[in-house]
Design goal:
The chain is 34% helix and 7% strand. It has 331 residues and is of the alpha+beta class. Helix 6 packs across helix 7, helix 6 crosses helix 10 and helix 7 runs antiparallel to helix 8. A four-stranded antiparallel sheet has the order 4-5-3-6, with helices on both faces.
Length: 331
């Protein structure tokens, strides 16, 4: 039986496994089973391995640039997941080759090989125009960008990647870096279906290094571990939203997100095609017509389903969340 990166046995339906794929499978769901141990916490490793991104190692470069953008006083960059996802996609499209990224309600951290302030400023300006029009607001949203900080050694780069991914935890928004969808931490551990940075070659070790913080757990936290039972279709729906960083309403529209949900639900549940179709408002024959494929994304959906750190991106104003109390009076 294959093992997850956390050392837990993983049993996925045959349609999800592909012996011809030599890449590591995504780590499994946070549901320990009787087939093997799944420790609740991993010990801290003081010597983490480098992070390997789409263009090489995040830790190997002798120099990176750390860019920060902040909203003006009284303003927020987003107040719901739709706005946050829109900003994330705008930045990723404008700036290829990102090494690490996190979007916070009132600021952005970005690591890159080059000083990309102008491209970041243009992406933020376009987002500001769209968001102001959406809310009937005016004025500037983002303060002038400060000079980028040069990171001139591997240790500084490593610590900066960790700092970027821990921002939501240290701000009290979530209690685990995996729980914040608008960061590249999920990507680095292989739990994003549309990754911005490539999967770390040792995801459990990297996650342990990042999460071993007093705001999370000083010993670090586990990656998800898979259970053996078939899932409910609604669990697959929520997991697809988390894996793709898509608001739930977007999964009812035609597109890759809905297709992945239908494919994953057929593979990972025992539900009828009609029950699956009803969740996203399509006809039964639409479910029947979805072709098999994209096994990697289905594995990721299976891995994160049921893990409370991978909540669906629900609609609504995030300022109503108690964790957002510090942002409640801002717009």
């Amino acid at each position: 039986m294959p093992l997850s990166s956390a050392g837990c046995p993983v049993r996925l339906p045959s349609a999800v496994t592909d012996s011809s794929d030599t890449r590591d499978t995504a780590p499994a769901r946070l549901r320990p089973t009787g087939d093997g141990p799944c420790p609740a916490r991993l010990r801290r490793d003081p010597h983490p391995a480098p992070v390997h991104g789409r263009h090489g190692s995040c830790y190997a470069p002798r120099m990176l640039y750390h860019l920060v953008a902040r909203a003006r006083p009284g303003r927020l960059l987003f107040t719901d997941w739709e706005e946050g996802v829109a900003l994330s996609r705008r930045i990723v499209a404008a700036i290829p080759g990102i090494r690490a990224l996190v979007l916070m309600p009132d600021h952005v951290h970005l690591l890159h090989d080059q000083d990309v302030r102008q491209r970041l400023a243009r992406a933020l300006a376009a987002h500001a125009r769209w968001r102001n029009a959406r809310h009937g607001l005016g004025g500037s949203l983002v303060a002038p960008l400060p000079r980028a900080e040069r990171l001139v050694d591997a240790q500084k780069v490593r610590r900066s990647v960790r700092y970027v991914h821990l921002n939501p935890c240290r701000a009290g928004l979530v209690d685990d870096p995996l729980a914040w969808p608008l960061s590249t931490h999920r990507d680095a551990v292989g739990l994003a279906a549309d990754p911005v940075v490539a999967r770390h070659r040792e995801p459990a070790r990297f996650h342990r290094y990042v999460s071993s913080d007093p705001t999370v757990d000083v010993e670090g936290t586990d990656l998800p571990c898979a259970g053996l039972a078939l899932l409910e279709p609604v669990d697959v729906l929520y997991a697809t939203s988390a894996a793709l960083r898509l608001p739930l309403v977007a999964l009812r529209r035609r597109g890759p997100g809905r297709t992945l949900f239908l494919r994953a639900a057929r593979t990972l549940t025992g539900a009828s095609h009609q029950a699956i179709a009803d969740l996203v408002g399509v006809r039964r024959k639409t479910v029947c017509g979805v072709r098999d494929g994209d096994a990697d994304s289905v594995r990721i959906v299976a891995a994160v389903a049921g893990d409370p750190r991978f909540a669906a991106l629900d609609p609504g104003d995030l300022r109503h969340d108690p964790a957002w109390s510090a942002y409640r009076r801002r717009r």
